[in-house]
Each structure stands twice: as C-alpha cells, then as structure tokens.
Specification:
Length: 232
C-alpha cells in the first residue's frame, strides 16, 4: 500500500510548478507594464488551468484543487491588467500568434488520445486537452520575442523560469519512469496516452531550449537586455 503524500510535500510540489506564473504576476505588479508579455499566452495559460481545475474538481479534489484555483485567479488577474489597465504598454501588433492553431489541434488530439481511466469520456478528454495545451501555451510568448528581437530583463527572466520549470518537470517524469522500470507508464493507463504524456513534457522542454541557451549566453556575457539573433 502506498504511503499517502504529506500536505507539505504536496504544497512543495505545487510551488515548484508555479514560478513562471508568479514571474508574470510580479512583472505586472513591480514594473507596472506588460511590455514584452503575450496576452495570448496568458489566455492559453488561463484556459488550460481552468480545464485542469475542472478535472481536479471532478476527478481528484485534493489540495491541488485549492492551490490551482489561486494560480488561475492570478493568471486571470494578469489577463485583466493587460487588457484594461496596462493596455498602453501592450505590444498588440507583436502578439500576432493565432491561438486557434494550437487550441484546435490540442482538442482533436485529446479526442483521439486521452486517459484510459474509469471517469466519463468528457472528463478524460478534458484532462488530455489541458495536458496538450499546457505543452504549447508558451508559443505566443516566443512569437512576441521573435518579433521584437530585444527582450526586456523581466520578460527574459519569466520565460527562462518557465523553461527551467518545464525542464525539471520533464526530468522528473523521465526519472520516475526509469526508477519504476516502466511501471509508471502502466499506472498512467494503456494505449497511446502514457507515451503522449511524456512526449508533451519533452515538447515543452525543447520549445524553450533555444531561448534558454541565448538567455544563459547573455547573462554570462554581462548583457542586461537579451538580444535574439534573426534566425530565432
């Protein structure tokens, strides 16, 4: 019988997942500006958090449900600030990623590949959707930085924190699979779902790998403002 996770462990695990979202919150609060932040990326984040919160309510309902509620509230506040209070500093013309290009494929993929649990079909598809959408929710933010080429320090720190968090998450999954000799994949269910969960983690990591490289290079070079090469 597995030992129940202690509340402090669960809180610590949740906190490790939050730095990128907290960074966006701090950027808006401290800088009183949303320059360099992608509204569309924040909206995608709010969407997958809302779906994940729904799934948590109907499938788990534990301490993560409460904590994820706070995360969603924070993200919605950032969206509100960008849309209404800090609109003058929002780079709308640079934030030109079409979110339907990721939302629709994620929804279709979730219909085809989702958890094989005993929960009803809608809940299983919703869970798959939020996993897939989370893995690509940063794409609009990367598009903004690609369009501007010059990334302000706070935005660079935010995206780098996002990259580190997702790298650690991916590493955690890989180590768990190795440590359990593949039994974790069996615990996740049958079919393609276990493999797609791992693929989603890897995709999240590699999407941000290139930016993180230039970020580290810039920091060690003593540059306060990150300048991306034209090929990025």
């Amino acid at each position: 019988m597995r030992t129940p996770k202690r509340p402090i462990y669960m809180i610590t695990t949740w906190v490790k997942r939050q730095p990128p979202k907290v960074k966006a919150f701090l950027a808006v609060v401290a800088e009183k500006s949303c320059a360099g932040l992608s509204l569309k990326s924040q909206e995608l984040t709010a969407l997958f958090l809302a779906v994940r919160l729904y799934c948590s309510l109907v499938m788990e309902y534990d301490i993560h449900t409460v904590l994820d509620s706070a995360t969603l509230a924070t993200t919605l506040w950032v969206v509100y600030m960008i849309r209404y209070k800090l609109r003058s500093s929002y780079m709308e013309e640079k934030d030109n990623f079409t979110i339907y290009h990721v939302v629709i494929p994620c929804a279709v993929l979730a219909l085809l590949v989702h958890p094989s649990t005993s929960h009803n079909f809608l809940n299983r598809v919703s869970w798959g959707f939020c996993v897939y959408l989370e893995s690509v929710s940063v794409l609009p933010q990367l598009r903004v930085m690609q369009n501007t080429k010059i990334v302000e320090p706070f935005t660079a720190h935010y995206v780098f924190a996002l990259g580190v968090a997702r790298f650690l998450s991916c590493t955690h999954w890989v180590l768990q699979v190795l440590d359990t000799h593949g039994q974790l994949l069996v615990a996740l269910g049958y079919g393609l779902w276990p493999s797609f969960v791992l693929i989603a983690e890897v995709v999240q990591t590699f999407i941000l790998a290139d930016f993180c490289y230039y970020y580290v290079k810039s920091v060690f070079g003593g540059q306060l403002v990150l300048r991306l090469p034209s090929k990025v």
